[in-house]
């Protein structure tokens, strides 16, 4: 996936109100950019770090700039836009880069499912002798060395999604939790017990009940983001 517009480099001044960030561009001007990430962005939002932003060119938007990439202290580029994970995974399925999710004829987005009427990120249907596949996608940015972890902040909503997936598995469907790790320096992913113990415990439980857990990393550059063709280890 290539960015539709050229990214512009800057320096993060501060992130605030969850969805806003003040950034100084290379020409010395300061902008306020939309931050498309609801997490804590641990290790990716320290004042002074290099960032890359995209100008939508849409004058109707209150904040036409969007923050897309951060550089960590170690010099690793991290894609922070959570909305891109769904696109990356769907693109990977269509291109045959995710063999575990191959063999389905249709892909539907944001379909209501489960007892709580949540929306599943992707619903795969039309597989030969295979049940419908419910895919919940989580964007991962945090890491400790070569091991990424999720979540980077407590998430009651994430726990709810795990219960919904387990319910679909019990009903005979195929339920998949997909970690899309937008950084290229990791070899595995694990639940962040030190941040949200309830999420970690629930994930281990639903995995034992039939929820599949997949993880792929993405290689990030200022030109675009590409999902890797090899799955990562999931350390439960």
Detailed description of the structure:
The protein has 236 residues and is of the alpha+beta class. The protein folds into two domains: 8-79, OB fold (Dihydrolipoamide Acetyltransferase, E2P), CATH 2.40.50; 83-234, Trna Endonuclease, Chain: A, domain 1 (3-Layer(aba) Sandwich), CATH 3.40.1350. The chain has three helices and 16 strands. Strands 3-2-1-4-5-6 form a six-stranded antiparallel beta sheet, with no helix packed on it. A hairpin with a 3-residue loop joins strand 1 and strand 2 (20-25). The relative contact order is 0.15.
Q: How are strands sequenced across the largest beta sheet?
A: 3-2-1-4-5-6
Largest sheet: 6 strands, antiparallel
For the terminal residues, how far apart are their CA atoms? 30 Å
Instruction: Specify Rg, calculated over alpha carbons.
Output: 18 Å
In round numbers, the mean pLDDT is 96
The CATH class of the largest domain: Alpha Beta
Shape: globular
The third-level CATH topology of the largest domain is Trna Endonuclease, Chain: A, domain 1
Low-confidence stretches: none
Structural class, by secondary structure, is alpha+beta
Query: Secondary-structure element order, as H and E?
Result: EEEEEEHEEEEEHEEHEEE
Architecture of the largest domain in CATH?
A: 3-Layer(aba) Sandwich
